[in-house]
Amino acid sequence: MSTAGGPSSALPHWHGRTSSPEQTEAVGAALALTQPARADAPLVLYLRGDLGAGKTTLVRGFLRALGVTQTVRSPTYTLLECYELGVLVCVHVDLYRLRDASELEPLALRDLARGGHVWLIEWPQNAAARLPPPDLDIALEVQSAGHMLALDARSELGAGWLHRAVALFPQTL
Ligand SMILES: Nc1ncnc2c1ncn2[C@@H]1O[C@H](COP(=O)(O)OP(=O)(O)OP(=O)(O)O)[C@@H](O)[C@H]1O
Ligand SMILES: [Mg+2]
After folding, report:
1. Buried b vs exposed e over 90-100: b needs ≥16 C-beta within 10 Å?
2. In terms of residue numbers, what domain contains 100?
3. What are 81-132's pLDDT values in tens digits?
4. Domain count, the chain
5. For residue 4, is it within any domain?
6. Cβ(12)–Cβ(159) under 8 Å?
7. Lower CB density within 10 Å: C or N end of the chain?
8. Are 9 and 45 in contact (CB under 8 A)?
9. In degrees to the nearest 10, what's the CA dihedral of 36, 50, 6, 135?
């Protein structure tokens, strides 16, 4: 793991490669099991990368680790899928088909912008300024060497999250 952004903002960065979907799922699981609690606002995770880069695969691992057994697919047409897991609500958003930020209105995201919620957002760049900033920014890319994965903390909460995930899951991250 390394840090970026100079001494004052030194937020952690991690990157690596996964050689199977199961390994990408394991990264998602590590993040799910180390996520911080936040009472006043949702935790926000951005997932960037081209079609097929592994964004949904990572979300699937995240949700499975929290007990979700149903099929996890990109909510490409509905844009949003909510998983109510006791005290935690996971909100999986896929903005690939979003043409205009006004299409976000019917999703009533504001109602989900509370503590006890974690947002996992695929294609966040399609909604630009209409989303809350991320705690963790994840970039995935298929290269000739395999599926590359980069995790950047974007908040103090995200920094603690990434440190914890790396410390507790050294075989995965
Ligand atoms: N190391 C790997 N990590 C993740 N996925 C992998 C890996 N190796 C192969 N795959 C395969 O690549 C595909 C990734 O698909 P996935 O739906 O996760 O991508 P996505 O980034 O969500 O795409 P989209 O933008 O279309 O929603 C899956 O078929 C998965 O099995
Ligand atoms: Mg997807």
Report:
1. bbbbbbeebee
2. 15-168
3. 999 999 999 999 999 999 888 899 888 999 999 999 999 999 999 998 899 9
4. 1
5. no
6. yes
7. N
8. no
9. -20
- Give the environment of ion ligand 2: residues with CB less than 5 A: 55-56, 74, 122
For atom 10 of ligand 1, the residue with the nearest CA is 21
Could you give the CA distance from residue 148 to residue 164 in angstroms, rounded to a whole number?
21
7 within domain boundaries: no
The CATH number of residue 152's host domain is 3.40.50.300
**Domain-located, residue 10:** no
Best substitution site from 45, 56, 172 to test ligand 1's pocket, by max atoms within 8 Å of Cβ? 56
Q: pLDDT-derived band of residue 168, with 50, 70 and 90 as boundaries? A: very high
Closest-lying ligand 1 atom to the alpha carbon of residue 49: 21
Q: Which whole-number Å values give the CA distances from 30 to 26, 61, 161, in the listed order?
A: 6, 9, 10
Residue 33 lies in a domain: yes
**Residue 135 pLDDT:** 98
pTM over 0.90: yes
